[in-house]
Amino acid sequence: MKCKVCRGPAVIDLARHNANFCPEHFLRYCRQQVERTVAELEMINPGERVLLAVSGGKDSLAAWDLLTDLGHQVDGLYVGLGIGDYSDESGRYARAFARDRGLHLVEVDLRADHGFDVPTAAAVTRRVPCSACGLSKRHLFDRAALEGGYDAVATGHNLDDEAAVLYGNVLRWQTAYLGRQQPVLPAGNGFPRKIKPLIRLAERETAAWCVLRGIDYQVEECPMAAGNKHLGYKEALNELERRSPGSKHAFYFGFLDRAVHRFTDGADADAGSGDPIDLDRPAGGTGPVPGHCERCGAPAESELCAFCRLTDRVAGADPVPVPAPRRRS
Length: 329
Ligand code: SF4
Ligand code: ZN
Ligand code: ZN
Known about the structure:
Blueprint: E1 12-14, E2 19-21, H1 23-40, E3 49-53, H2 58-69, E4 73-80, H3 84-101, E5 105-109, H4 110-114, H5 118-125, H6 129-147, E6 152-154, H7 159-171, H8 175-180, E7 184-185, E8 193-195, H9 203-212, E9 220-221, H10 229-243, H11 247-258, H12 261-264, E10 291-292, E11 299-300, H13 306-314, E12 326-327
Parallel strand pairs: 3-4, 3-6, 4-5, 6-8
Antiparallel strand pairs: 1-2, 7-8, 9-12, 10-11
Helix pairs in contact: 1-9, 2-9, 5-6, 5-13, 7-10, 7-11
The chain binds iron/sulfur cluster and zinc ion (ZN) (2 copies).
């Protein structure tokens, strides 16, 4: 297997590009993909400050590394979700990455700062953990970005994530979600701009980036993810991709090029009824939000925002045990 660029020994094959790359040219390919995405979609303007949601996993750490490597000013935000050893370990990876590179990591801890954790919230609300988790993360990212004066919130969603979310939204024709499934959501309605700079990189590629750059990351799967529909959608798309390389890219970028605009105007009010996966509901500056939360000032559709209502509901509940982390398959 030879590198497409230099004919030296290749370490990775990218079937959808019909190309193999050596370490040097694979890293260059990744930088070019992210640089192109940021520039074409005007994600970050010169001099802007970005707050990146850092989970301690490969995608967010690769995003932090890539964006700073490209010269952008990026701080990280780690939210401690209280998911037992999994959260403790994820936090250690995020802190070590920031410390070793002299980067600034902002930390929020759900239990210490807001009195609850994700497993307890899931038990009290009797909904899947990803529902309370996604809601909390979105709220805390938005708040930290606005309080810190950041111009945009970035997430490490990759091509596999976006294709899987799209697949789930199309399966159920979640038209409001489809209208908001965009790599850039402009600021507005009290929300900061949301950007996804890794949409041109597949999951395998962000993992390879981390390995080649010597980045240690959380390899365990969240123990609360069991039964998560998103993982099933990913598996289905992986099978399609195996049979027909380039399918995920064609599906997702075809949607952005030719279909998303059909769902952006007059998006209907079905948001909130669907798949409770945090990835598919990026709150952003589209769609009407009537008012602000009386307690925290966040955009809200009633007196209190969804996060403050959740906090009230879970307050005082006894913490529930957390399953052990799961090794990724
Ligand atoms: Fe949160 Fe669900 Fe992701 Fe676990 S899998 S971190 S519970 S959104
Ligand atoms: Zn090469
Ligand atoms: Zn609130």
